[in-house]
Amino acid sequence: MEKWKRSARLVDMTHQLLNVPYQLIPLTAFAKRYHAAKSSISEDLTIIQEVLHAEQSGQLETMAGASGGVRYMPGIGVVETKEVLERLCKRLTDPERILPGGFLFMSDLLGDPVLLHSLGRIWAKIFSHSKIDVIVTVETKGIPLAYAAAFHLRKPVVIVRYDTTVTEGSVVTVNTVSGSSGRMKQLSLARRSLAKGSRVLVIDDYMKAGGTARGMIELLREFEAEVVGVGVMVDSIVPEKLVDNYVSLTTVTEVDEKEKRIHTTIGNLFDQGAYS
Asked: Where in the numbering of this chain does the Phosphoribosyltransferase domain appear (predicted)?
């Protein structure tokens, strides 16, 4: 295509930006691709930015200078976030989810690609300015959530294991106490999985007292890693958490096994400042 119409140019440029979030694209690359002047490209970017702003779907960041360009920063607005989480809360209140001991069945939620895509966008909004190097989760239920966040943040995923295998090589292992059961368990991470000094976002599916999250934080200290955030899909009300600072998307306020009743609400994410 030698000469692009503005309408075609806008569609393709939007696609290019959304396809590589956080990646800086030089204006000269756009100008060369569309055979257009930089001034025309700048006008196009202004139109795209106006639409993104109106729809609260993220923003464009422009960097000036010879090596400058533009990059897309993903986002999701308050209204859409609340709609996603209200639907999740409704699904969580299904009494058939109640398991012995007051636990909840959530495997169907963790296998829902549409829901995971939306939750990944929310976490990208919350943690986009945390300068994350890697996302860490613990097997097994946290894995799809970690990859959902990783897709939108464009960061690698590292998985903490309960058991070790010979294919992992040498590992670092810590003992931790489960906050829900009080039982001792081990968490292990291969030495080659994480560079020392990495900035880490911890993602998990469920937090009761926070024993697993606390264990992961202690394990990451062995790698001299800095935990810059902890995000959970669901947390529950307990007298005291073992983790002080974390972001929850939803909160289970009551599970009544006898009456088959579950109460939920949107979590503490709107108290974290990302949506202010």
From this structure: 117-248
Beta bridge partners of 207: 235
Separation of alpha carbons 234 and 252, rounded Å: 7
The CA distances from residue 199 to 21, 154, 161, 268, in Å, are: 19, 14, 19, 23
Beta strands in 57-178 (DSSP E): 58-63, 69-74, 134-138, 157-160, 171-177
Terminal alpha carbon distance of the chain: 43
What's the distance, CA 175 to chain centroid?
A: 26
Choosing among 3.30.710.10, 3.40.50.2300, 3.40.50.2020, 3.40.190.10, the CATH entry for 78-271 is: 3.40.50.2020
Say whether 152 sits in a helix, a strand or coil.
helix
- For the cut 80, the answer to whether the pLDDT of residue 1 exceeds it is no
Q: What is the 3-state secondary structure (H, E, C) of 90-124?
A: HHHCCHHHECCCCCECCHHHHCCHHHHHHHHHHHH
For residue range 124-167, list pLDDT tens digits in order.
Answer: 999 988 999 999 999 989 999 999 999 999 999 999 998 877 67
Residue 120 corresponds to which tokens in the numbers above?
């990944």
Question: pLDDT tens digit string along 221-253?
Answer: 999 999 999 999 999 988 788 898 999 999 999
Nearest-angstrom CA–CA distance, 80 and 86: 10
Distance, C-alpha 95 to centroid of its chain: 27
User: Is residue 130 helix, strand or coil?
Assistant: coil
